Amino acid sequence: MSGIADWFQRLYETTGFNFTVFYDPYDWGRYLGGLRMTLLLSVSTILLSLVLGALGALLQNGPSRLLRGLVHGFVVAFRNTPPLVQIFFFYFGLGTLLPATETASGLREPILGNVQWAILALSLFAGAFNVEIFRSGIEAVPRTTIEAAEALGYTRTKAYLYVVLPLALRICLPALNNNLINLLKTTTLAYAIAVPETLYAVKQIWSESQNVLEMMLVLLATYGGLVGLLVWIMHRWERALRIPGYGG
Predict the structure, then answer these.
(1) Is residue 197 a contact partner of residue 38, using CB atoms and an 8 Å limit?
(2) pTM of the predicted model, to two decimals?
(3) Residue 123 in contact with residue 52, Cβ under 8 Å?
(4) Which of 23, 95, 136, 245 supports an S-S bond with 8, CB 3.0-4.6 Å?
(5) Alpha-carbon span 145 to 153, nearest angstrom
């Protein structure tokens, strides 16, 4: 690592390209902290949005008109409003209504911090899209398959969990992959409420070191790498779940 740091130090001295993040331990630590926060946001929101999507699709296809209406309202509200507005609504709107706890130093601290609100808002945003994605997959499962599961004694819930959902997941994986990739990129909006993710950390570095071009290149490469890794994982998942001879 010292050789890499020395190389970037010489690069700055000879060309003026100042990639401080690769030779300054303080900037490197801030960058890694931002990257860890981005990974936390991404993994948390992906998992929560998948759960919300699967649960919402179950309720949307259920017998209760009230629950179907509530899920439809949720989907319409979160699909038709910008995610940044939703983050502001939760953090600056609902956040002010929640009670605060008093710390040992006498300061009042909200129950949910900016990280928790960002995870909640982004999960609901992506979950609304996942509901429709899962619903399309469920509707593509042949009705005869559901009837066969019911004939074998499965309850409606068990038939959904063990028969319908696994088949629907295989059908809707391409659309689901696209939504989860977009969700990873959308985590940058957490910057707006001072969540110390990658964009926030990089912005601090270039503000102090005046190396906007260099840090923007680092930022683009970072998200290119993260998206590429997620695409690789999702494609591996898609191949692992593919049904031989089904869907071409």
Answers:
(1) yes
(2) 0.87
(3) yes
(4) 23
(5) 13
